[in-house]
Every structure is written in structure tokens, then in C-alpha cells.
Write a sequence for this structure.
DNA sequence: CATGTTTTTTGACTCACATCAAACCCAATT
DNA sequence: AATTGGGTTTGATGTGAGTCAAAAAACATG
């Protein structure tokens, strides 16, 4: 996985908080303040936990390289993947409400993250109003995203879900300046299934079916979207 | 670290922003500031829209009386209910990210809400840091809540979903000092189904089945929870 | 390279929920 | 009292996705 090289994101490479700085337009002075917090860097390899269930959560993390999945665990062991995070994104926002947090983030690839302790964030955001407002934006986006997934889980058939999943992945890669039609999946069929509320076999069948139709080309974790319009259409058609 | 709190909605009745003031512990002076914004009051009756799809969203609303459902609409007409809001709660938070918003809130009962224009809220929160922090809390809670629903939609059977729904309703009524075992539903079977990713018939069957088991008593929209422990158990049992 | 392990694909079968349809209830209206 | 209409319950039937199982492919290891 090459380190993120998108034009937008590199603008904030100095503070290692790519997504955080990106749309807010912090001044040089404000960015310096971020550096003064001397944030710690952590390296994770595949399968490592970013923070464990039961532990109180104390920090935000910006992903510099690699990918994570976030999940919540039911008492009886059932897991639900709540999202996939890639380089240039932030995880841990939900934990700002320190009351109850039973979520985890698990590395899907070798990853590097940058930790920003929450206490410091709070004092910081008092000084930098734009940061405060920007955190709102991120959280709002998270809520909107979650509600989109609720729509997906609540009222779409299996193949529509997989199509929607591929399309959002495509968009996210495009936003990073990478190819929107040819990319590597960084997660297993199992994880995709959990995220979409499906079993891994169903995900596999959907991939195979789209391939038979000539919409995509699949080779294990390599995906090529051949007919993007058809993929779009397959979300609305089957209703 | 923000101090913990105990629920007492009446403490904030003066400013009509029950939930907003509740856990944040605004000072008398701060509450007066809120009043100076001379917020508009709106009255809604059943089925009215709080804000319409396509319109840019400009405000937060605190519900003084009545109930709402929030929903998002797919292009092809499919709707997904994303939540139910009752008196003392706030709706519209997801719309702070003004970019794209295709959600709606629809009154389920005759309702009174109190509008707080967003622009003013922003200037206000610069003056009152605790309000800013509290908005974070609310949004965090929203995210946590949504992710709980994702778990529900992704990995629970129909009866588990209905049981979980009744239990969270029970908790919410308890928080308001109302009976947690005997209450009125303010939404139709259809809405419950949409919220839980089920058809209305399935919801009805689940109610009937729980009634046959002696766990609850149902009379159209009146619910009495007879055996709360059994209802709890029915979430974990069937796996 | 051979070997064991994990992930993915594919097939056959089952079941939970959706779908379709009819009856019922209750409140509002004539 | 009869009628209308929305919401709810209940039954009969169909189907999409889960389950079980086994083979194939990809990956890891000595």
C-alpha cells in the first residue's frame, strides 16, 4: 500500500491529521499548535486492535497508512462491522461520548496511525474554533453515512447491497486520486458480509453473478468495474 | 472530563431546550443568553413535515410536546425510518453538515417544537463552550445509537429486533419518569417495520407471539410489558 | 517444492421472512 | 344504524438468503 499521495491530503502532511485538516483550512499557526501536542505514532500489523473492548477510550486516531475495520461485539459473540477506514481518515469519533463504548478497530493491513489524546483535543479546540466546527462536520458526515447504511441494511436485497458497497468504495478511491474502476479489496468476504448484513457465501455469489453479467471482473481481492452504469442500475432495478 | 449528570428535564423548562440543557449544566446566565435568541415556536400536527426534502436545512429543533419520526427516502420511493424522537429530544443534528441532506422529519402526533436557527447557534457556541461540548455529546450518542441499530439490522432475527425495540422504548420512557412497562406506541406497525427492516405483518406476528408467550400484552397501540426479563432473554436466546 | 491452513467458490437443501389475500377492528362520517 | 377507510391481525404460499458441505484456489511455512 503506497502512502497517500492525493493532492488534497498532502497539503496537511505536516500535522499527520490529514482528514482533520483537509477541509477546515487551518492556518499555519494553528497547525503548529497541533504539532506542539507531540502526538504519538503507532504502528499496527494485520489483526492488531487499535483499542480493546472494555477499555475506556481516550484518543482520536488519524490513519496515515493501511486500513482498519471498526466493529461492535454482541455479548454472545456476534460481530457487526460498522465501517472500513482507509488512509487519510479518522477513527474513534464515536468514543467522544465516553460513557459506554464497546467498539473496536482492527487493522486489516499493516497500518500506521497517529494518536491525538482527547483531553488535549478539548483544550486545543477551545483555542481553535475552526477545529471545533470541523469536528462537527466530521461527526455529521459519520451520522449521514451511518444512516445510509441503515437504508441499505433495512431495505435492499443482497445484490443491491454488494453493488452499493462497490460503488462507495469506488467513490472513496476516486476521492484519493486512485483509480475508481480498478482496486484491491483490503477486507475478506466475511468482513464485507458482516458490514452488509449478509453471509460470506452470499457476497461471493453476488460477485460471481455480477461477473457473469459482465459488470465487474473479480480475481479474489482484485476488483475491476467494467460497466459502472450497469452497476448503478442494479441498485434500483430489482425493486 | 465533563461531569456526570442525572436526568431532570423540568430543570430546563424555562429555555424550552430540554435535552440541550439537560446534561450540560448551563449556568443561569447562559440560559438567559439562549432566551435572548428569541427562538420561534412552531406547532405541528400529525403527518406534518418538520423540514422538507430538498430544502436546505437551517435549524435545530427541540421537541416540547408530541413525537416525530425521521426518515430518508430512496429515489425509487423506498423509505427507511431512521429514528423516533419524543418530547425532550432534539432533531436535525445530522443536517449540520449542510452539503447534502435528503432526510425528513414527520410528526406522528400533534407536536410543538422550538426552533433554534443554526447561524445563531454557531455564534452562541463560541460564547458558551459547554454548549459546544454538549453538542458533541449529543452527536456522539446519535452515532452510537445508529451503530446499535446497524447491529440490529445486520444480525438479528425478526423477533429479536422487535424485542430490542420494545426494550429501548421502555428505557426511554423510564428516563422521562414514565412507566417503563406500560405505554402507548406513537407509531404504526408500518413505521416500526421500516425502522427495524421488517414488513408490518412480521412486526404484528412478533407482537402476537410475545403475547401468546405471556411476555407482553398488546391492544393495538397500548403495550404492557409483563415479563421484562423474558423479553430481555428473547434477544440472546435464539442464536 | 511439498504441505498444511485459510479463504473463496460452488452446489444442494432448508427455513425465516416476504408476499398475497382475506378478515377484522375501531373511529369517523353519513 | 350503516358505511367508509386506515390500521391491524391472521392464514396460505413463495422465495431469497441462510445453512451445510465439499471442492478449489490462494496463501503460508518449513
Amino acid at each position: 500500500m503506497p502512502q497517500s499521495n492525493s493532492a488534497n491530503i498532502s497539503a496537511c502532511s505536516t500535522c499527520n491529521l490529514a482528514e482533520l485538516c483537509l477541509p477546515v483550512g487551518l492556518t499555519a499557526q494553528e497547525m503548529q499548535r497541533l504539532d506542539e501536542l507531540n502526538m504519538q505514532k503507532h504502528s499496527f500489523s494485520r489483526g492488531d486492535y487499535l483499542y480493546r473492548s472494555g477499555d475506556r477510550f481516550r484518543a482520536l486516531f488519524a490513519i496515515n497508512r493501511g486500513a482498519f475495520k471498526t466493529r461492535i461485539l454482541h455479548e454472545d459473540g456476534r460481530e457487526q462491522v460498522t465501517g472500513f477506514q482507509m488512509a487519510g481518515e479518522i477513527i474513534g469519533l464515536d468514543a467522544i461520548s465516553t460513557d459506554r463504548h464497546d467498539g473496536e478497530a482492527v487493522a486489516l493491513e499493516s497500518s500506521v496511525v497517529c494518536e491525538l489524546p482527547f483531553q488535549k483535543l478539548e483544550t486545543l479546540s477551545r483555542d481553535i474554533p475552526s477545529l471545533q466546527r470541523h469536528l462537527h462536520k466530521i461527526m455529521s458526515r459519520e451520522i449521514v453515512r451511518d444512516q445510509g447504511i441503515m437504508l441499505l441494511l433495512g431495505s435492499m436485497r443482497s445484490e443491491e447491497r454488494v453493488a452499493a458497497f462497490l460503488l462507495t468504495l469506488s467513490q472513496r478511491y476516486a476521492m484519493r486520486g486512485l483509480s475508481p474502476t480498478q482496486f484491491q479489496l483490503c477486507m475478506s468476504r466475511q468482513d464485507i458480509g458482516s458490514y452488509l448484513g449478509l453471509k460470506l457465501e452470499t457476497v461471493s455469489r453476488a460477485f460471481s453473478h455480477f461477473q457473469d453479467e459482465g459488470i465487474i471482473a473479480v480475481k479474489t481481492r482484485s476488483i475491476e468495474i467494467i460497466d459502472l452504469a450497469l452497476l448503478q442500475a442494479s441498485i434500483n432495478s430489482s425493486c
Chain B touches chain A through 46 residues (CB under 8 Å). The radius of gyration of chain B is 19 Å.
